[in-house]
Amino acid sequence: MIKDLIAYQNVDAKLRKIESELAQSPCRKKAISAKNYILNTPETVNKLDDRALQLSNAYEELLRQQASLIEQQKELSQAMEKAEDGKEMAFLIKKADELINAIKQVSSTCAKVNEDLQKVIKEYSSVRATNKSAQAQYAEATEEYEKLKESFKDERESIQKELEALKSKVDPLLMEKYLKKRQNKMFPIVYEVTGEACGSCLMELSMLEKNKLKNGEIIECEQCGKLLYKLN
Ligand SMILES: [Zn+2]
């Protein structure tokens, strides 16, 4: 019984080799990286939107501060005209200097915020451009991948026919187990036990498992899930 499954697996290995070749092909990798970029673009754009909103709010707040400082400056110069003595004048001059400094401060912060806002706008157009080239790359790589896949079509079909013929010889329950593992990308699936441990992950087998194997049963490794057998 296990011999039929091993025969199946040997042929299946050819199919697996083609699948790996396809999965690891540069065009497949290119398509995946382009797709990931495209899928992440909305999130990137959302983050830029948030940043742009923050900056433009900050910019407006700074403009309000600037307007209020300029207003204070006007009031101060009116007060200076009405100043009655040197002491009051000195105080007002000191106030005027403070105001000038505050206005300078706000202006330079304004310029900084504006600079950041320009950076965000630049980033927007860079994201847009990269997204556009990612879409072109995705289309191109996908087309190349489909061609590569097509080139394996005949070989795959012939292997699949071979597998179909071998399948009927294998115990259906065992076959089902095998195919489920295969679907989960496990390969190889069937391992011979050499000595006292799983042939794949080397986990020590229990007495019960060893007895089952001795009786010709096929067991599943508790640790790695491989199907284990022992030839008597
Ligand atoms: Zn194992």
Mean pLDDT: 95
Q: For the record, give the distance between the C-alpha atoms at the N and C termini, rounded to a whole number.
A: 13 Å
Low-confidence stretches: none
Helix content: over 70%
Short overview:
The chain has 232 residues and is mainly alpha-helical. 77% of the residues lie in helices and 3% in strands.
Any chance you could write out the topology, listing elements then pairs?
Blueprint (H helix, E strand, L loop, with lengths): L1 H22 L2 H56 L4 H66 L1 H15 L4 H12 L6 E3 L14 H8 L4 E2 L6 E3 L3
Parallel strand pairs: 1-3
Antiparallel strand pairs: 2-3
Bound molecules: zinc ion.
Please provide a written account of the structure.
The protein is mainly α and 232 residues long. It folds into two domains: 22-154, Orthogonal Bundle (Helix Hairpins); 157-229, no CATH class. The chain has helices spanning 2-23, 26-81, 86-151, 153-167, 172-183, 207-214; strands at 190-192, 219-220, 227-229. Strands 1-3-2 form a three-stranded mixed beta sheet. A hairpin with a 6-residue loop joins strand 2 (219-220) and strand 3. Helix 1 (2-23) packs antiparallel against helix 4 (153-167) and helix 2 runs antiparallel to helix 3. The mean pLDDT is 95. The structure holds zinc ion.
Main traits of this protein?
3 strands; 77% helix; 232 residues; single chain; three-stranded mixed β-sheet; Helix Hairpins; 2 domains; 6 helices; mainly alpha; binds zinc ion
